[in-house]
Specification:
Layout (H helix, E strand, L loop, with lengths): L6 E6 L3 H16 L3 E2 L8 E6 L4 H12 L2 H6 L4 E6 L7 H8 L5 E3 L7 H6 L6 E2 L20 E5 L1 E2 L10 H5 L3 E2 L2 H14 L3 E5 L16 H8 L7 E5 L8 H8 L7 E3 L7 H6 L6 H14 L4 E8 L6 H14 L3 E6 L17 H26 L3 E9 L6 E5 L5 E5 L8 E9 L4 E8 L1
Parallel strand pairs: 1-2, 1-3, 3-4, 4-5, 5-6, 7-10, 10-11, 12-13, 13-14, 17-19
Antiparallel strand pairs: 8-9, 15-16, 15-18, 16-17, 18-19
Helix pairs in contact: 8-9, 12-13
This protein binds S-adenosyl-L-homocysteine, iron/sulfur cluster (SF4) and FE3-S4 cluster.
The site of FE3-S4 cluster has 11 residues, from helix 1 and helix 6.
Length: 442
């Protein structure tokens, strides 16, 4: 079918994995002849790349799908596609169609590659959700729009089954790409001019386990530093249970590997960590943070924390606050526990009341904001290398980019310096951002 002059729009929800997967969806649509359209209403195909990590994510997405009912009436040729984690849940596709019958096609996480054939041949069957783990989707071309940053998947899926989490059910078991395949992709991206490559996995430290040939994450990092050129290498997420000394040594071995570790702790009490099946103790976590800070001076450690998991007492919560006080995270993503059908946590009975959850998240965020502001004094007066990522549209002639350890910095420039490395002297800071002056351009 000829899709000339037809346009696509993608709405992406959830984590970086989805952000990158949307680039693959864009790749497929480009191959089919569609062009990107910035305004959803003007597109001929709209793809919802969904997330289901918390109930609020699902509600938001469905609310958004609902707003397109009228448009579909006005433009009957419009195709609405849903894919991603939400659609992979048991019976979800059929459930969505009951309430949103105007959705044309629903693909599970292992069926993305089918978009190419199914979109041109829509039929009565609308839901395609394969239960068995998909292959690696390596052959799907990405249409990237994130210069100078590029995302690269190194491992798909998750084997950890934290009791609160739906990801292992919707993303399947761990599947690692080969070192060679990752190397080729990263080398190609560096050659094309990308300056920051972020390696993605639910747990990058599990990389290679399923290959059974001695491959591991530290080896991958060392291999990638053989690539010539000036670029930054980032990675996420790191599970604390298997963050090895070998990985710390690999990070220390090349200054192009950013000293930034996203190390979700989830909770500060051993009772909660056990109930969550996180497989480390509070003491082990604190020791690991100490070790990383000592061996990688200047490192930025960021984290994810959840409050209100089943059975969390005030005492448990105070231990989380105490851990946050001790670790001095550069930033923390804080979440209220959301019950997810199909997970072990769903059937636990000791549910924490909503008002207590709300009170705890407020106290947690207040504490972390205070720490973030305190840490600003470590930056003020010092010069950092920044990769300029974008303009800051809120201010005139203002650009922004990140330090190696991931802090966002704003600065002014009369010339367009996007995609360049600059040196910036930081002179003031708020909770969210730092401000500075350029001292040198690459
Ligand atoms: N693989 C990563 C996390 C991916 S999900 C890891 O192991 O750390 C991102 C974050 O969402 C998690 O770190 C957790 O803090 C949060 N999260 C996961 N399931 C959740 C749930 N049911 N309710 C609330 N937050 C959740
Ligand atoms: Fe979810 Fe745990 Fe896997 Fe992270 S490690 S994706 S939190 S099950
Ligand atoms: Fe990511 Fe949400 Fe799926 S956080 S892995 S898009 S459930």
């Amino acid at each position: 079918m000829n899709n000339e002059n037809k346009k696509y729009h993608i709405l992406t929800y959830g984590c970086q994995m989805n952000v990158h997967e949307s680039e693959k969806i864009a790749g497929i649509l480009t191959k089919l002849g569609y062009e990107y359209e910035e305004v959803a209403e003007n597109a001929d195909v709209i793809v919802f790349n969904t997330c289901c990590i918390r109930e609020t994510a699902e509600q938001k997405i469905l609310g958004h799908v609902g707003t397109f009912k009228k448009l579909k009436k006005k433009k009957p040729w419009l195709k609405i596609v849903m894919c991603g984690c939400m659609t992979q849940q048991e019976g979800k596709g059929e459930e969505i169609l009951k309430n949103y019958p105007y959705v044309d096609l629903i693909l599970g996480t292992h069926n993305i590659a089918e978009l190419e054939s199914r979109l041109n041949n829509l039929s009565k069957q609308k839901v395609y959700v394969q239960k068995t783990d998909g292959y690696l989707n390596e052959e799907i071309p990405s249409t990237r729009t994130s210069m100078p940053n590029a995302w690269v998947n190194i491992i798909y899926g998750c084997n950890n089954f934290c009791t609160y989490c739906i990801v292992p059910y919707v993303r399947g078991r761990e599947r690692s790409r080969s070192i060679q395949s990752v190397y080729q992709e990263v080398e190609g991206l560096v050659r094309e001019g990308y300056k920051e490559i972020t390696l993605l996995g639910q747990n990058v430290n599990s990389y290679g386990n399923d290959l059974n040939d001695g491959t591991n994450f530290a080896k991958l990092l060392r291999e990638l530093t053989k690539i010539d050129g000036k670029f930054r290498l980032r990675f996420m997420t790191s599970h604390p249970k298997d963050f090895t000394d070998e990985v710390i040594d690999a990070i220390a071995s090349d200054k192009r590997i950013c000293k930034h570790v996203h190390l979700p702790v989830q909770a500060g009490s051993n009772n909660m960590l056990k109930a969550m099946n996180r497989k480390y103790t509070r003491e082990q976590y604190l020791e690991l943070v100490e070790k990383i800070k000592t061996r990688l001076p200047g490192v930025g450690i960021t984290t994810d924390i959840m409050v209100g998991f089943n059975g969390e007492t005030e005492e448990d919560f105070l231990q989380t606050l105490d851990l946050v006080e001790k670790c001095k995270f550069s930033s923390a993503f804080c979440f209220v526990y959301s019950r997810r059908k199909g997970t072990a946590g769903y059937n636990m009975t000791n549910i924490v009341p909503q008002d207590i959850k709300k009170d705890r998240i407020k106290r947690l965020i207040t504490l972390q904001n205070k720490i973030t502001r305190q840490l600003n004094s470590n930056y003020i007066g010092n010069v950092f290398e920044i990769l300029v990522e974008d303009v800051n549209p809120k201010f005139e002639n203002t650009y922004c980019g990140r330090t190696e350890c991931g802090r966002l910095v704003n600065f002014k420039s009369d010339t367009d310096i996007r995609n360049k490395f600059v040196k910036v002297k930081v002179n003031k800071g708020t909770t969210a951002t730092l401000w500075g002056e350029i001292t040198e351009v690459e």
